[in-house]
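User: My advisor, Dr. K., asked me to get a structural model of this assembly before our group meeting. I'm new to this, so sorry if the format is off. These are the inputs:
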Amino acid sequence: MTAMLLQCWQLFVAFFRGTMLGFGGGPSIIPIYQNEVVNNFHWMSNEEFGKSLAMANALPGPIATKLAAYIGFKVAGWLGACAALTAVVVPTALIMVALVGVMNKLSGNPVVKGMVRGVQPVIFVMMAMLAYDFAKYAFQSAPALGKFGFLPFLIAAAYFIAVQYLQVNAVWGIVGALVLGAVFFRG
Amino acid sequence: MDKRKLVQPYAELAWALLKTGILGYGGGPSVIPLIRYEAVQRYRWLTDDEFGEILALANALPGPIATKIAAYLGYSQKKALGAAVAVVAHILPSTICMIALLSAVHLFSQSAIVQGIIAAVVPVIAVMLGMMAYEFAERAVKGLGKPLGFACFVAAFALLQVVHLHPALVIVLFLGYGAAHYRTAAWLTAKRQRMRRQRAERNGDYSA
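Assistant: The format is fine. Below is the predicted structure of the whole assembly, which you can bring to the meeting.
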């Protein structure tokens, strides 16, 4: 019981810290959560985090709350999911409601605007590093596939072309990759 | 009758945000137009301009944007309880789907098909993260200008990968710089102008 409560507290701390540092909406939070979940608390491997992220992207609704709920659930069951979700949603909701009164001053404020801009280079570098990690995993799986070794590259290229140039919704890109995997990647 | 009047605002909040939570694919940005439609056109909780202001504030604060907007809409209608109803309605269906789906994947993780599915998603994650990274790079360069933007990339990379500073610390550092960014930029321009003016005056003196 105490171990469970400790885990819930750690979940709360991790997601509170991550959310408070995530300026600029959902996607900017992803590499920060990854750092908390994989590097700080070792709740998941990098690969497992990536899988959760892909699923979160394939389902509707905000990404940060889906990630937090699943990771919380995995660590400490439903109570853990609640702890993580509370940390993501409640503090920011309180700040939002509290600041609506001084809103006009705040959203045009050069200090706040500068903070949102200043943090973007860091998010870029963290996100790019994460992308690099997953590109590496994809290359590593190629030799084991034998004559289908080209498939990871094909999937990556096809997803990029479909989403970037053909305006296909990312959801269909992910679903398509899942189907290809179910058919061709079997041991 | 009285009872229905009491429940109706909560039901409207819950329904509007439940719908947008289920139909909004692809995270924050895709959901905002849907919420705007419900809040401005359908239920008329606020005007389009007000919604724009709320969105600007939500953008300036940390954390996911859709949940902050949901909390505000609920609070503006029915205070704390309204905010709770709105946020829960918005995130609950996708949360339960996420937990159920990933638990199912975990349960069948020995199956060859599920392993194939998981392997196939890795290259997609790489491309997805790469595209998101590119968007942030684009925004950073647009917001800070090319020279400063690239200097910041190099500095962030060095701090994270070479010095191995804790990422949270790096973020706080850059937030700190960002807070002073406009003042620094204004000071630099002012200084440059002052120097130009002095030089012009000096040149003027010589010619006179």
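One thing worth pointing out at the meeting: The mean pLDDT of chain B is 85.

User: Perfect, thanks a lot.
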